[in-house]
Amino acid sequence: CLTLNITQTNNVVLPSPEGKARKESLQKLLQENTMNNKISSWITHSYNKLRSDSEAGASKKYTVYMAKGETEGCQIAFRPEVESKISLKLVSGDSSLLYGMSALNHKHLIEGKYYTDSTPPYNGEEIAVGENETTPILVEFRTYENTEAGDYEFVFEAVNGEGVIGTYEGTVHVWNFALPVNKTLQTAVGLG
């Protein structure tokens, strides 16, 4: 796994010369046709409801906006024309902000029936994606009170047995304020 060396200047994260060269190389990959074995793939907001019959999107870049002390994410989705086994990995970025990944719409065959497990943890293993079925992988980021404000770049790469399916750029934009540590909500429940 490649780690992007970063330096902090005036609350803006700048890549080192090695990181910049790697980023330019990855941007070139992004511009190429990322259709491998007729697999559509895209990155989108984590709150978009992607069902197994959702149509393919087109975006390969996405920005997540976060305060300090927040968890937020995005989805990288796949829709092959033929059944395929796909894996996703972090190629570059600050892994300390990567909170976790979950395979959504993942099905398990149990006693002859398929059951959907909505959010099993995903650790980069191959997952089976059915023919003309959309399967997203949720990518979650976590910031802390001491996270520096600025933009953090991430690059993910999806592969199957034939090679690279797609490369997806994510930017985590961290605002310069923190959410309260103790979350509270005033309520009048139980007064009557």
As laid out across the biggest beta sheet, the strand order is 4-13-12-6-10
Structural class, by secondary structure, is mainly beta
Strand content: over 45%
Question: Spans of 5+ residues with little confidence (pLDDT < 50)?
Answer: 1-13, 30-35
* Biggest sheet statistics: 5 strands, mixed
Approximate helicity band: under 10%
Bulk shape: globular
How many helices does DSSP assign?
Answer: 1
> From the alpha-carbon coordinates, what is the Rg to the nearest angstrom?
19 Å
The overall average pLDDT, rounded, is 78
Strand segment count: 13
Distance between the termini: 58 Å
Order of helices and strands: EEHEEEEEEEEEEE
How would you characterize this protein structure?
- By secondary structure, this protein is mainly beta.
- The chain is 8% helix and 50% strand.
- It has one helix spanning 17-31, and strands at residues 6-9, 12-15, 39-45, 61-68, 71-80, 84-92, 98-103, 106-110, 113-117, 127-129, 135-142, 150-160, 163-178.
- The strands form 4 sheets. A 5-stranded mixed sheet has the order 4-13-12-6-10, covered by helices on one side. A 4-stranded antiparallel sheet has the order 3-5-11-7, with no helix packed on it. A two-stranded antiparallel ribbon has the order 1-2.
- A hairpin with a 2-residue loop joins strand 8 (106-110) and strand 9.
- The longest helix is centred in the first third of the chain and has 15 residues, at 17-31.
Secondary-structure blueprint of this entry?
Layout: E1 6-9, E2 12-15, H1 17-31, E3 39-45, E4 61-68, E5 71-80, E6 84-92, E7 98-103, E8 106-110, E9 113-117, E10 127-129, E11 135-142, E12 150-160, E13 163-178
Parallel strand pairs: 4-13
Antiparallel strand pairs: 1-2, 3-5, 5-11, 6-10, 6-12, 7-11, 8-9, 12-13
